[in-house]
Amino acid sequence: MPIRVSLNVVLAERNVKSKDLAEYVGITEANLSLLKQGKVKGIRFETLERICDYLECEPGDLLRFEKSIR
Length: 70
What we know:
mainly alpha, 5 helices, 70 residues, 434 Repressor (Amino-terminal Domain), two-stranded antiparallel sheet, single chain
């Protein structure tokens, strides 16, 4: 997948627990874990907005596009 999720990095930088973020965002810890691993096909803008609000970051801090080598 060319979109890389760096949510783990941002959580560690801010010393935030997944449990606290999941509760604030309104998703399960299991779904947050899948998101952190990059194992989701998409994310709602509302969910992304709440994550960014809680972590005080921009979407680009969490997601980045990596070109595939061909």
